Each structure stands twice: as structure tokens, then as C-alpha cells.
Protein 1
Amino acid sequence: MRGVWTTEAVRAAEQRLMATVPEGTLMRRAAFGVAGQAARLLTEHAGGVSGRRVALLVGAGSNGGDALWAGAFLRRRGVGVTAVLLNPERTHAEGLAALRRAGGRVVEAGSAGAALTAADLVVDGIVGLSGKGPLRPGAAELVAAVTAPVLAVDMPSGVDPDTGAVDGPAVRAAATVTFGCRKPVHVLGAGAVHSGTVHVVEIGVERELPEPDMVLLDAADVGAAWPVPGAEDNKYRRGVTGVAAGSATYPGAAVLASGAAVQGGTGMVRYAGTAADAVRARWPEVVATGSVTDAGRVQAWVVGPGVGTGGAGHDVLEHVLSAGVPVCADADAITLLARDPDLWDARDPDTPVVLTPHEGEFARLAGEIGPDRVAAVRRAAERFRSIVLLKGHTTVIAHPDGRVLVNLARSAWPATAGSGDVLSGLIGSLLAAGVDPWLAAGCAAYVHDLAGDLAAEGAPIGASAMVEAVPDALRTVRAATVTG
Ligand SMILES: NC(=O)C1=CN([C@@H]2O[C@H](COP(=O)(O)OP(=O)(O)OC[C@H]3O[C@@H](n4cnc5c(N)ncnc54)[C@H](OP(=O)(O)O)[C@@H]3O)[C@@H](O)[C@H]2O)[C@@H](O)CC1
Ligand SMILES: [K+]
């Protein structure tokens, strides 16, 4: 698992560390990391380092100081460096002196045109963790004139450091070098896109950090958590997943959710609903019945996709919530819960529930999301005493106790009709196997996204192709576990 820490936690850790090391040490370590990545990008985009040109966009604080020191290091490798000062009277003095000593050029924003046009790489040191709001007009104008790839120092300027929100001009970086750990800006929403490839440079601050504010799973974590049957297991011990989804008119959701549960490795899938014929036709291994009341025993239920929001869907959801087993409630089930909160009374308080809304369903259930997605999902998880998984380019998964897991999409190909049904089937499969519901939601989100990416291979796909690709995705994460 990789941690993500808020700027508040990072600053506190930085203060503790600063007290133990000579002044300027952390900035030079940080800047050295920036210079290393800059050299790598120059090699990649301009075929070498020496003789290439770099422009530094330098703001008023330490972020600009990092950029200036990085410029000084790059000068030693024969790079032509020009610093563009956005706020000359507040420029980091030591950094500026270091760049000048190393033979760097310094210009003010008004005369930056030639340096920006000639640059093979631009380093964004406009603003870092003290950033508020979008780029101010002077900075925005310069950034708009950039054509070379941008390397962001700590974070892309103009993005909100703690929410990743972008509501005006902001830097779009090819890569970002950050210090000590990832911050929310690197993994949330638009911020994740604007950050480009994120490189974390250790500067010592990481040793001072408390428990992370959010975590990201990697392939090996998912591979280790995904259940693998042992010699003692049989289909019942592996877990039976109930799927209450779809309808005679809309059988697709039932077929996709049941298929994903099968492919996710559950021991048996019991389908209950009016799409039984369609499910049997596509997945003969599924035991299909017409109603949840005669479905037989299951260890977890997936409920909602395509069940409708009328009386029949209401009764299905009520039955499932009172069954005393973990439930993944998606789509129409969420709309039903939003419309009739009394449905929650059917749930035994100890029964784990995983809610998987998209943004519209989330708003119906818990109100508008606002710019701070993580805070909104945390509040909803606490309010409904459920795991809440908010879908998006960054999927945010909150536990009622405040823990948050995020999953970053590899591409947007999986954003297709029926994709959510696949996700809920995977979650159901893990819940039935007894995986912790918060981890189950995180692992399912990871495998869902990976399956989409593997199926797509750079071209559009339908949700059925994602179901087909689940075994490939599972092989990939299991291989990562083996190789460490
Ligand atoms: N954490 C660590 O361990 C280490 C951190 N280090 C580095 O320090 C950085 C944080 O530095 P920092 O606190 O000096 O402020 P920073 O982000 O440079 O902002 C400067 C000023 O910009 C302004 N401003 C605000 N918003 C703006 C906007 N939208 N557009 C334009 N301007 C805007 C605002 O001033 P204002 O004009 O509002 O008075 C603000 O005070 C951090 O990101 C990392 O790079 C490393 O050196 C070593 C280890
Ligand atoms: K920056």
C-alpha cells in the first residue's frame, strides 16, 4: 500500500524534521531530485542533457526556491537555464544566488517570451503546498505560452493541493517530482491528470509522517488480498454470491453482474430475478431462480443494477438488507435508499453494506459532492455506516471510521454502459469470500480498472469485454504478488 498525506500532515512532519537538520538541507535534497528528473525528461524529449535549455517559472515561496536550486544543479550538467521571476521582490534569495553563481540567467515575467520559446523543458516552481485557487493572471499568461513539456515541482501550480480540484488556469505537467510522499493533489480528480507521472523523492520527511490520510493499493496488495482456494476448499467455503439485479426487460445488468461474480472467483453464484433465462443462457454455471425469497443461502448479496426503482425493486432490496449477510448496493438500490430512507431499518446494524454510487446517485443519496470529494465520501460513509465507493477517474472508497482508499484509473475506456454492474459483481464475489468490505471494494475497483485496460488495449470496449478480461487482470495482480 502506498500512503497519501494531507498538506497539513506534511507540514507538521517538515517542521519536526527542520528542527534536526541544518537550514536549507531539505530544499537542496528536494531540488536535487527535481534536477535528476529534469535531466531524464531532457534526455527523453530533447535527446540529451548538456546544451539543452530549461526555463524555470519561479513564484514567491519555497516552491520557487526548489526550482532555482534545481536550475543551479542543472547548470553543472551543462544545461542553459533561465529563471523567470514572477514576483522578483519575494523570490527565494538563497536559491536565486545559487542559480546566479552557477551561471544561470534571470529575467522578469515581462521579458520571458524568448526563454519560453527556446526551452526544451519548463520547470513549474510557481506555487507549491501553499497554493490557493487557480493560477493568478500573470502566471496563467506565462503558462499559456509554454509549448515544451512541463516538470512540476511538488505539484502542478493552480490545482488545489488537498482536493485536486481545478477551477481555473492550472499547469498541466508531463511529470511531477514531489517530496517525501504523495499528497492528495497527485491522486484526486483533475489533480491526478494535471500531475502527469508522479515521482516521489525521499528527503527525510517521510520518516516523520503519521498514519496516512489515504492509501492506494498496488498490484501486489490486490494479488495478496484476492482469495485463492486451497486444497480444503469447496464451492461453499469459497463463498456463494447472490445477485439480485436486472429484469426481464433489462437483463443485461443481471448477466454482467453475475458474470463478474463468476469470473471474480466466487464458489457459486445464485441469481434471483426475472432475468433468470438470460443469465442461464450466458453463464450456465449460475444457479438462477425467479425471486430472492427462494434463492437459497448466500454469503453476500449484490443488489440494484437494473432492478428498477418501483415496488418490486423496493421489496427485493428490503429482503436483501434483512438477510444478515454483507450487501453491495448499487444503481437502483442507491436511488431506492435515497428516496426511502426507512429501508435502512431493514438492515441489521452489524451487516456490512458497500454502496457504489456514481456522482448522480451520490448526490441523490447524500447531497452535492462539492470540490472536496474525499470529505464528501467520508461524511456519507459515517452517516450511512457503510463503505461508500464513489466512482470517477479517481475512485474514492471511505470506511465509516474515516479510512480512505483511492484508486486511480489507468484510462477512461472502462467508463462505458454496464461497467458499474461488473464492479458490483466483483465486490460481491469478494464479500462472499469474507474479504474485509473496505478492502474488497478497493481490490474490486483495482481489478475492474485493470480488466478494462487490458480488454481495451487502446480501443473502445463494452462491459462484456471487461468481464472476459477479469481472469487476465487477476493473473496480473497475482504475478505481482509472487514477484514482490
Ligand atoms: N514539505 C516539505 O517537506 C518541503 C517543501 N519544500 C517546498 O516548499 C513548498 C511550499 O513552500 P511555501 O510554503 O513557501 O509556499 P509556496 O507553495 O511556494 O507558495 C508561495 C506563495 O505563492 C502565493 N500563491 C498562493 N496561491 C497562488 C496562486 N494560485 N498563484 C500564484 N501564487 C500563489 C502565496 O503567497 P501570497 O501571494 O498569497 O502572499 C504563497 O505563499 C513546497 O511545495 C515544496 O516545493 C521543499 O523546499 C523542502 C521540503
Ligand atoms: K509547482
Protein 2
Amino acid sequence: MIRVVLTDIEGTTSSISFVHDVLFPYASEHLPGFIRARYQDNPAVAGQLDAVAEKSGVARDDVDGLIEVLQGWIREDRKETALKALQGMVWEQGYQQGELKAHIYADAAEYLQRWHDRGLRLFVYSSGSVKAQKLIFGFTTEGDFTPFFSGYFDTGIGGKKEADSYRNILSELGVEAGTVLFLSDVEAELEAAEQAGMQTAWLVREGDLPETGRFVARDFAEVDTLLQKR
Ligand SMILES: CSCCC(=O)C(=O)COP(=O)(O)O
Ligand SMILES: [Mg+2]
């Protein structure tokens, strides 16, 4: 019996194009000014720059060099925890100033509410920082969805393609692996979750459906058919 739904964001609850064509360019444009204004006296920003310097080998006092590294990581869609933390801080300003409104698929909006009301516990696992996750669900075009979620996990718990990350989530949740349904559009993430014993549904929102033994869904209404069965 599935009691917990753990969901990815990009390509699952929100479109890939919102993340790549709106959020990433916004971060790329605003990160330089954001960092230059804070790198000396904001401990949260300084701490993330320490991590960028360590990972990249660029000198810690070379702020322009660190900004260049971050811009490159955005272009490459690198899931670096420090980048994700800084992006979350920049997006917070954008959402609060009304410059950003998040996309959520209509079916995701409908079924997140239904599943919550039905007593399922809902959690998020995304490469975006927990702050960014709360923002994307808090400032959608359809309203605030954060009341439906019981918790959030980011790459602080481990990478999304590693089975140990899902084991860590299970031990945080204190539930049996088989009672958790993980939703994602990325097959390697589903494989890792399955290795940890979770059930999975593969969201394929566009294009041909893959030939696979996995449960595949076009949208959350189809995921719901699986939830009603198990
Ligand atoms: C949390 S909103 C921004 C999403 C993001 O930065 C990202 O890299 C997408 O990762 P996901 O694990 O949701 O595919
Ligand atoms: Mg995804």
C-alpha cells in the first residue's frame, strides 16, 4: 500500500522549459550583482563561495572567477549543491518582487491536492535547494502548494542518481521502502529509487512513450490509477 509520494520537480510537476528558459536565465542574469553585493558581509553567500572555490580550484578571493565558474555550471546544468543554494537565494528575490511566477502542470496541481486530502504524505526530492523548492511550489500561477507537502529533500541528502540517497530519505521518513512512490522524468533516478526498494512512476510528458517494464504515466491522473491499485 502506497502511503508516501516523493516527487521530483523539473519535468514532473513543472515544465523543463520553465526551469531552463525562465529560472536558469534569471539566475544567470542576477547572480553576478547578487554575489558582488554580498560576498564580503553575507555569511550564507560567503559559505557557498567557499564551496565553489574548493570544487573548482579557483582562488577564493577571485570573485569574478567564481562568478564565471557559476555561470558555466548554469550553462552545463550542473547539479552542484553550492550553485543550487545560490540560485535559490537569487530566485527568492525574483519571486518576492513579482518578477517570477512558477509553472505547475494543471494535473499536478489537481492531484497534489487530492492526494493530500486523501491522507497521502507528500515530499519533494529535487536537485534545486530546499529554499528553491519551497519557492517554486509557494509562488505558482495556480497558488501556494506548500501546505500539501510534509517535507523537502535536496542534494544535501545525496545525488538523485544514487541509491543511497533514497535509502537516506527512507531512514529520515522512517517508513518501509515499498510504501513510497517516487515520481520522476529521469530513468536513472527511478533506477536508483528502485534499488532502494521504492516503487516508481516514470513521467513522460511529451514525445513517444518508451518501451519499458516500468510504470509510465503521461500525467498525474495516470499516476493516480497506480495509487488506486496499490
Ligand atoms: C527547485 S526549482 C529549480 C530546479 C532546479 O534547479 C533543477 O536543477 C531541477 O532539478 P530536478 O531535480 O527537479 O530535476
Ligand atoms: Mg526531473
